[in-house]
Amino acid sequence: MAAGRLRPPLPRRELAEVALGDAADVDAAVKGARACFESDGWRKLSARQRGRLLAKTADLLEARLDEFARLETAHNGKTLFESKIELGMTVNTLRYYAGWADKIVGDTLPVEGPFFVYTLREPIGVVGAIVPWNFPLNIASWKFAPALAAGCTVVLKPASETPLTALLFAELVQEAGFPAGAFNVVAGGGSTAGAALVRHAAVDKISFTGSTEVGRQIMKMAADTNKRVTLELGGKSPNIVFADADVKAAVRGAQTGIFYGKGEVCAAGSRLLVERSVHDQVVEQLAEGAKKLAIGDPLDKNTRLGALVSKQQRETVLGYIKKGVDEGATLVAGGRPGNHNGKGYFVEATVFDAVQPTMTIAREEIFGPVLAVLSFDGVDEGVSLANQTMYGLAAGIWTKDVQKAHRVARAVRAGTVWINNYNSYDSGAPFGGFKASGFGRDLGREALDGYLETKTVWVGL
Ligand code: NAP
Ligand code: MG
């Protein structure tokens, strides 16, 4: 377990020194996880006891929620308001899977012949979890909570930008009473520690959330050891506003869809598709709202637009904004870097109108507070535009017509569809992608399947 030295979070100061784990550290962590997985101590722990340990961890996290939220804000730049919501979700996720631990069951199967056949659901083994920087501990919990509930042991590699909450969380796991080796954290680089985890022969499964590009590399690397892989990747999600929608609610949804988490959200509703007859009204209200969304100190509880995660990410986002202008889209709000007392890697809440489907800002994931507005006429064009992407993570639909809402929900190729809401999540609702947004699911009962093997037992009668 790599150790970090934590200092009180202050903007634009050194926050902590973190040991940079390498392949040798990963090997030590995997050996620890393997030894724990095969130990009597872990094997004989009942499912109910595993559930209790997860529930205890949830209580410990809840008791220190403010401290964790401040730390999440300090290394990521998201607002304290958002960090608190997400840490609350992490507590819920731990509790949700604590409840599942003793409800994982097999089947009895009515086969032909003199046999009694049943299935056992057994833990897959050692799980390597590799996560991004945008929801650091929350997305990690989408992996380690179901994995531990299923009886797996875990090695977690947090993103280089945001290792602090994962390291601090490891202390809570220890305090809750999990046996040594059940949960391990190695902070380190993707191409070093991350790749070592993916290649390690004693790791049975990799659960990854991150970019589509790295996801593809991981899939290739994992092939050499026949590892199971779950990939939650990027998105360019359409948020479709029909003319018969409650326009005010749709505009609010479009705003949270792109500006929550400064748009560094895999499911961000970054393509707003607006039916032509309400287009002017929607764009006007959006631009007005975006201009009001002030940049501020992320640690101030009233701030709603935080700082981007890093200087590099800000440069990437500003590069996309320049491309939008160069390719002929109309900038109607934002577009500039911002600062708070001269500090922070901020970007203003930005809205582009008159975006064409072929433009870069309509096709590529920007991962910043930048909205592309496109227009359409009628359901067929709306759906076809929505599906005109290699991604398929999420989609939003705004209409008061119940039939249309359900019809479009079926026609859109995406893992999550939000009707008259956007960016809603719950531990009990599966989340993941179609197409280049990956495969497998986090959250809900379905996530457990990713950490279980099915064993079929034939008894001769
Ligand atoms: P990323 O660059 O793909 O990195 C994700 C994680 O993979 C990090 O821990 C990274 O380590 C590690 N990594 C990088 N190269 C690796 C390699 N060769 N082998 C093994 N691990 C490697 O993604 P990001 O920039 O952190 O996050 C943004 C992306 O994540 C966006 O594309 C976004 O859409 C996606 N995302 C998807 C979801 C979802 O649920 N579908 C949720 C959130 C984010 P380092 O940090 O050291 O590079
Ligand atoms: Mg990266």
Strand content: 15-25%
Ions, cofactors and other bound molecules: NADP nicotinamide-adenine-dinucleotide phosphate, magnesium ion
Total number of beta strands: 20
Q: What number is the mean pLDDT?
A: 96
Number of helices: 16
Largest sheet data: 7 strands, mixed
Unreliable segments (pLDDT under 50, ≥5 consecutive)? none
Q: How would you sum up this structure, described in words?
A:
With 461 residues, this protein is of the alpha/beta class. Helix content is 42%, strand content 20%. It has helices spanning 23-38, 40-43, 47-63, 65-76, 80-100, 136-150, 164-176, 190-199, 212-223, 247-259, 279-292, 311-326, 360-363, 378-386, 402-411, 444-449; strands at residues 4-6, 16-18, 108-109, 115-123, 126-130, 153-157, 183-185, 205-209, 228-232, 238-241, 271-275, 330-333, 337-340, 343-347, 350-353, 370-376, 394-398, 416-419, 438-439, 452-460. A seven-stranded mixed beta sheet has the order 12-15-16-11-10-17-18, sandwiched between helices. Strands 7-6-5-8-9-19 form a six-stranded mixed beta sheet, with helices on both faces. α3 packs antiparallel against α6, α4 packs antiparallel against α7 (164-176) and α5 runs parallel beside α6. The longest helix has 21 residues, at 80-100. The mean pLDDT is 96. Residues 130-134, 139, 157, 159-160, 189-191, 194-195, 198, 209-211, 214, 217-218, 232-235, 266, 365, 367, 393, 433, 437-438 line the site of NADP nicotinamide-adenine-dinucleotide phosphate (NAP). NADP nicotinamide-adenine-dinucleotide phosphate is lined by residues 130-134, 139, 157, 159-160, 189-191, 194-195, 198, 209-211, 214, 217-218, 232-235, 266, 365, 367, 393, 433, 437-438.
